[in-house]
């Protein structure tokens, strides 16, 4: 099973840096359309347990507004499932953690949009409260980021939050254990690989779908 990692589904503004984070909506739609034709299923996180062949889990980091505007209609059109990782303390704000580095403010979904996305069947996971490098802050603060974000999302959505995603893919054993202790079932990294290549459910490897990848490259990444 493969887990795809996306960030923005949008056309980048000229001044935006790191344009590989943006997959054009038309490109995203083609990826879903072709993979579906080839017999792939876009599954839910609970399907990580059965790890079926030809399964893909679509993950979206950071909860950008363009998920709501651009990705959601395409996901619905192809009857796919997906999960969005939200920095719970920054809902309705923008990418405060890297807007200077990227030279652009990217809008994040507000609670109303997140609730609507959830009602449409999209899963929501935690991406901490404020998107810090978890290994670089005091352990007590990291614990709070991991635990309080879960609680906040659970309160707002009235559902159990089972998935966590490490900001910047930054974690170590201590951080991983805090995630386990907080009661999550799965945690996602930015390390490249398949579910089979992941050591355990708290260090799940993914495949970053760069905006620069051609369709054959996406298909290649899916089958290897
Ligand atoms: Zn992130």
From TrEMBL:
Signal peptide position in this chain? none
- Pull one GO CC term from this UniProt entry: extracellular region
Which keywords accompany this UniProt record?
Answer: Signal
- Which CDD domains does this one have? CE4_NodB_like_5s_6s
Q: Does the keyword Signal apply?
A: yes
The record's subcellular location field reads:
Secreted
The record's annotation in InterPro entries points to: Glyco_hydro/deAcase_b/a-brl, NODB_dom, Polysacch_Deacetylase
Q: Where is the NodB homology domain?
A: 54-224
Q: Which SUPFAM superfamilies match?
A: Glycoside hydrolase/deacetylase
Taxonomy, superkingdom: Bacteria
A molecular function (GO) held by this record is: hydrolase activity, acting on carbon-nitrogen (but not peptide) bonds
Cite a single Pfam family from the UniProt record.
Answer: Polysacc_deac_1
Q: A single GO BP annotation from the record? A: carbohydrate metabolic process
In terms of PANTHER family, this protein maps to: POLY-BETA-1,6-N-ACETYL-D-GLUCOSAMINE N-DEACETYLASE, PTHR34216
Protein name per its UniProtKB record: Polysaccharide deacetylase family protein
Source species of the chain = Sulfurihydrogenibium yellowstonense SS-5
């Amino acid at each position: 099973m493969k887990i795809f990692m996306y960030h923005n589904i949008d056309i980048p503004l000229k001044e935006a840096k790191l344009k590989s984070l943006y997959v054009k909506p038309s490109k995203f739609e083609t990826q879903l359309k072709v993979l579906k034709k080839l017999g792939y299923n876009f599954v839910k996180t609970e399907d990580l347990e059965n790890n079926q062949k030809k399964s893909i889990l679509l993950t979206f980091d950071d909860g950008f507004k363009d998920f709501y505007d651009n990705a959601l209609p395409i996901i619905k059109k192809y009857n796919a499932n997906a999960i969005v990782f939200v920095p719970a303390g920054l809902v309705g704000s923008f990418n405060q953690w890297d807007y200077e580095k990227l030279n652009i403010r990217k809008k994040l979904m507000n609670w109303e949009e997140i609730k609507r996305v959830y009602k449409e069947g999209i899963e929501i996971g935690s991406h901490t409260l404020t998107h810090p490098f978890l290994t670089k802050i005091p352990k007590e603060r990291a614990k709070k980021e991991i635990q309080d974000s879960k609680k906040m999302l659970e309160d707002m959505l009235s559902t159990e939050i089972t998935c966590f995603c490490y900001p910047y893919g930054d974690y170590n054993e201590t951080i991983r254990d805090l995630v386990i202790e907080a009661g999550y079932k799965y945690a996602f990294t930015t390390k490249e690989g398949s579910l089979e290549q992941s050591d355990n459910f708290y260090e799940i490897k993914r495949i970053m779908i760069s905006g620069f990848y051609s369709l054959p490259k996406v298909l290649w990444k899916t089958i290897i």
